[in-house]
């Protein structure tokens, strides 16, 4: 298990550069990741953000059902399993977000008429669940050795009642916040690939949250690199 | 000739139009289809509306029922939206339990209702901890030609504006609710959230109000919901190709303009309904 | 099959047809040196190298563009080289680059040899499951000495060692059990006994690399037969069932060990075996039958 703590001081210095109001609290909880921890899937990863923890497994490119076959690219299926109970409407909507984000970063045309299955099992939810799912998905896809055009990472921002932006909020912070946004940021141009929001907010707040997420994404991408390096340290 | 080209190379067909800043149906890139609204079309429902955007048709019926409030929110009623995409509206939908798209749309509508403060849940409470209203909002697609999220939101908003709840009193002796169907009161609508959907073509070209065909060929979808105060209630982009901040700003500006148009349209239709009555 | 396996195969398919993932381009000297600097480093999808003509070249340089061969995990898009897989950048003189990643799922490539299971007989062809996205077809005529009259004896459930003659994303993969001259060359149906195990594709490559350390370590233990398919399937057989199982377990654990860890483990096993008198002297050579030189998918035509 590799872990990484974002040191608060440095992050503050950096946030000064990108025109974010000083009230912004840019703190990411400690996060960790482990790849290839399951023996059956072709790629697997677990991603931990604070107490939020998600396990992801990827199967494929494998045989596809005729009804789901697409003649010029692979069919991607995403399944999200909650910690307790059966997947419901909320999970369906998360699945849609995850699937379309993964589809945009994977080079699916390299494996026509085959299927890719991504399964995410929520182990514990302590806020920022969707961003943790996105990160786990990206690490699992990388672990499976699938061809990707770019990487993505998930960042959740909460706007508290007094207008403060909190990155990577806990469940308690999410509950107190008046708006909550999750973005998937791409690794090439740091643009927004996915956005899912709750609560109402102004345009300015949205742009600020995007800027904060873009900044935080650099940390996460660096973390991706470090954990892949650790994984391959035996082969170097 | 053109029909053959369209079938064989749909993407190229659309590209050749977009190059000239127009679309196959004659619209400009930032032009919505004609939106028609009919309010109160279902007489048996407590509130209803029918929306047509081009060919896309959504009908919304609202059924109010009395129920017990949940234990964790004793002073609140609740709203249950449900989007139905039956096989009738498009050949891509099969009979059976709702598919991913229908479920995701239902979740989106529920999120917008919650985020926008469309109706204060406290207004639906009749007797704290004992009795409250639950509004079942059934949205059914009759004809699927893209952009159902926008159409659903307009239909929902118009139907809620049309909804009249009967007065409820509680009989002191029997402790049972008594519904007075003659005295009806309009729901208080606090905000008017209206959506504007966009598609991204070839990672760069933004088009507004996509048709079914355009949705299938696009690389990304985006729905921005704004209210009359210019606040954003939802920026929903389920994946797809990345979008820059400037493009996003463009979309938001278009969405605010759209909100005003639709708000005006709903007011106008409601007025005309009143005058005919 | 038995006697065919007794010789060490090498270079069975010297010049394979270039695999789709292998592309050739001209690039500036500058990019070449940038790439060379990164050899052995970890790259992630989305990383890119620019090789535009705008690269300023020092005057002393000849400025002659060099040819570059991009193997698996690297993609050419215009004048840029994009990384599409995570892993270690590897280089082979003079100009081949590829990303070495640890995959588990096999994607067929023309010319590679694999171990498959016959799953069905369908008229003139057998359907063979090799762990990919669809079963491969294997004609009954594609065996050494097979004719229309003299059909090979292949049953459903048999293991075959075969080579891809057609493998691309748009067509059904096709296997043959003969080489270019119609000889079996080690391929065909497996005999009785032995054990089939699954390992990662990275381990298979490490086993097949010329002068592989891993193979040398295995040779120290006891005589055995190994058939290595590029699809991550390894067939092992040793003198006794017990030895076969030991070998299978060792191979499967090799994936996650560094070289010193592995050697330590092998030493432990060796002393234990000798203590228990489970082995004779490893006089016989380790017999290896498998894909020839790995990474040969990088050869270009």
Structure, briefly:
The complex is a heterotrimer of chains A (236), B (277) and C (301). Chain A has 236 residues and is α+β, with helices and mostly antiparallel strands.
Describe the structure.
The complex is a heterotrimer of chains A (236), B (277) and C (301). Chain A is of the alpha+beta class and 236 residues long. Chain A has one domain (2-234): Ribosomal Protein S5, domain 2. Helices cover 33% and strands 29% of the residues of chain A. Chain A is built from 5 helices and 10 strands, in the order βαββββαβαββαββα. Chain A has helices at residues 8-17, 89-105, 129-143, 171-176, 203-231, and strands at residues 2-4, 31-35, 43-49, 52-62, 75-81, 115-124, 152-159, 165-167, 179-186, 192-198. In chain A, the strands form 2 sheets. In chain A, strands 1-2-3-4-6-5 form a 6-stranded mixed β-sheet, with helices on one face. Chain A starts with a strand and ends in a 5-residue tail after the last helix. Chain B is built from 6 helices and 12 strands. Chain B has helices spanning 2-8, 10-19, 100-116, 148-162, 212-217, 245-276, and strands at residues 35-39, 47-53, 56-67, 78-84, 125-127, 131-143, 164-170, 177-186, 194-201, 205-208, 220-226, 232-236. In chain B, strands 1, 2, 3, 4, 5 and 6 form a 6-stranded mixed β-sheet that branches. In chain B, strands 10-9-11-12 form a 4-stranded antiparallel β-sheet. A two-stranded antiparallel ribbon of chain B has the order 7-8. In chain B, α1 (2-8) packs across α2 (10-19). Chain B is elongated, with a radius of gyration of 21 Å. The model of chain B has no long low-confidence stretch (mean pLDDT 92). With 301 residues, chain C is α+β, with helices and mostly antiparallel strands. Chain C has 3 domains: 2-17 and 107-191, Nucleic acid-binding proteins (OB fold (Dihydrolipoamide Acetyltransferase, E2P)); 23-100, OB fold (Dihydrolipoamide Acetyltransferase, E2P) (Beta Barrel); 195-290, 2-Layer Sandwich (Ribosomal Protein S8, Chain: A, domain 1), CATH 3.30.1370.10. In chain C, β5 and β6 (80-83) form a beta hairpin. Chain C starts with a helix and ends in an 11-residue tail after the last strand. Classes of the chains: A alpha+beta (236), B alpha+beta (277), C alpha+beta (301). Chain A binds chain B through residues 89-90, 92-93, 95-104, 179, 181, 184, 186, 188-189, 191-203, 206-207, 210, and chain B through 100-101, 103-104, 106-108, 110-111, 114-117, 219-222, 227, 230-245, 248-249, 252. Chain C: Its main location: cytoplasm. Chain C: GO terms for molecular function: RNA binding. Chain C: It is found in: Cytoplasm; Nucleus, Nucleolus. Chain C: Residues 71-105 form the Exosome complex exonuclease Rrp40 N-terminal domain. Chain C: It comes from Fundulus heteroclitus. Chain A: Residues 28-146, 152-215 form the Exoribonuclease phosphorolytic domain.
């Amino acid at each position: 298990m590799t872990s990484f703590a974002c040191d608060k001081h440095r992050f503050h210095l950096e946030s000064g550069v990108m025109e974010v109001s000083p009230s912004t609290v840019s703190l990411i909880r400690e996060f960790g990741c482990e790849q290839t921890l399951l023996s059956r899937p072709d790629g697997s990863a677990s991603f931990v953000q604070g107490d939020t923890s998600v396990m992801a497994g990827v199967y494929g490119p494998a045989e596809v059902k005729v009804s789901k076959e697409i003649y010029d690219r692979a069919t991607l299926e995403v399944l999200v399993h909650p910690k307790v109970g059966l997947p419901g409407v909320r999970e369906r909507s998360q699945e849609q977000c995850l699937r379309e984000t993964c589809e945009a970063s994977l080079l699916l045309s390299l494996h026509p008429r085959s299927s890719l299955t991504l399964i995410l099992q929520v182990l514990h939810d302590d806020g920022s669940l969707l961003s943790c799912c996105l990160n786990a998905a990206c690490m699992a896809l990388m672990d499976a050795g699938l061809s990707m055009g770019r990487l993505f990472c998930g960042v959740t921002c909460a706007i508290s009642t007094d207008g403060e932006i909190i990155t990577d909020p806990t469940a308690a912070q999410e509950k107190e916040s008046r708006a909550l946004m999750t973005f998937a940021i791409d690794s090439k141009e740091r643009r927004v690939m996915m956005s899912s929001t709750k609560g109402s907010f102004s345009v300015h707040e949205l742009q600020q949250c995007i800027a904060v997420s873009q900044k935080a994404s650099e940390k996460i991408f660096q973390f991706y690199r470090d954990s892949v390096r650790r994984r391959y340290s035996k082969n170097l | 000739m053109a029909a053959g080209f369209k079938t064989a190379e749909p993407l190229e067909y659309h590209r050749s139009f977009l190059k000239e800043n127009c679309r196959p149906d004659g619209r400009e890139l930032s032009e919505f289809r004609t939106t028609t609204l009919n309010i109160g079309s279902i007489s048996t429902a407590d509130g209803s509306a029918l929306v047509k955007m081009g060919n896309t048709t959504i009908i919304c019926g609202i059924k109010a029922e009395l129920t017990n409030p949940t234990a964790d929110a004793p002073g609140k009623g609740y709203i249950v939206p449900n989007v139905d995409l039956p096989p009738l509206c498009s050949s891509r939908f099969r009979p059976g339990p709702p598919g991913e798209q229908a479920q995701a749309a239902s979740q989106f509508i529920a999120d917008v209702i919650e985020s926008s403060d469309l109706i204060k849940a406290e207004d639906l409470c009749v007797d704290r901890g004992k009795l409250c209203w639950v509004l079942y909002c059934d949205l059914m697609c009759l004809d699927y030609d893209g952009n159902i999220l926008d159409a659903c939101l307009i239909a929902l908003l118009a139907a809620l504006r049309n909804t009249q709840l009967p007065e409820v009193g509680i009989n002191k002796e029997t402790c049972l609710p008594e519904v007075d169907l003659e005295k009806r009161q309009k729901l208080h609508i606090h905000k008017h959230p209206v959506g504007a959907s966009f598609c991204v073509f070839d990672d760069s070209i933004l088009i507004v109000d996509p048709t079914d065909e355009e949705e299938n060929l696009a690389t990304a979808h985006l729905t921005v919901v704004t209210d009359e105060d210019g606040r954003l209630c939802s920026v929903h982009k389920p994946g797809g190709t990345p979008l820059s901040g400037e493009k996003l700003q463009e979309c938001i500006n278009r969405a605010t303009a759209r909100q005003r148009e639709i708000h005006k349209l709903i007011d106008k239709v409601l007025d005309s309904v009143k005058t005919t009555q | 099959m038995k006697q065919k396996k007794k010789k060490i195969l090498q270079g069975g398919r010297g010049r394979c047809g270039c695999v789709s993932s292998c592309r050739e381009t001209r690039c500036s000297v500058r990019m070449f040196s940038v790439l060379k600097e990164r050899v052995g480093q970890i790259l992630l999808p989305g990383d890119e190298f620019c090789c535009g003509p705008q690269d300023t070249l020092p005057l002393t340089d000849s400025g002659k563009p060099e040819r570059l061969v991009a193997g698996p995990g690297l993609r050419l898009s215009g004048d840029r080289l994009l990384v599409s897989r995570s892993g270690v950048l590897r280089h082979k003189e003079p100009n081949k680059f590829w990303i070495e990643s640890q995959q588990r799922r096999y994607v067929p490539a023309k010319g590679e040899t694999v171990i498959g299971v016959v799953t069905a007989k369908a008229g003139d062809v057998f359907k063979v499951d090799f762990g990919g996205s669809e079963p491969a077809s294997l004609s009954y005529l594609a065996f050494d000495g097979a004719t229309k009259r003299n059909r090979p004896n292949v049953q459903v459930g048999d293991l075959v060692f075969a080579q891809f003659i057609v493998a691309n994303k748009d067509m059904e993969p096709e296997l043959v059990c003969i080489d270019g001259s119609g000889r079996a060359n080690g391929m065909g149906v497996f005999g009785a006994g032995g054990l089939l195990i699954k390992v990662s594709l990275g381990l298979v490559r490490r086993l097949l690399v010329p002068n592989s350390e891993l193979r040398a370590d295995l040779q120290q233990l006891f005589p055995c037969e190994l058939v290595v398919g590029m699809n991550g399937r390894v067939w092992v057989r040793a003198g006794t069932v017990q030895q076969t199982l030991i070998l299978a377990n060792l191979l499967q654990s090799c994936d996650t060990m560094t070289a010193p860890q592995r050697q330590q483990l092998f030493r432990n096993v060796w002393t234990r075996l000798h203590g228990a008198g489970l082995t004779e002297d490893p006089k016989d050579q380790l017999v290896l039958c498998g894909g020839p030189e790995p990474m040969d998918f990088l050869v270009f035509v």
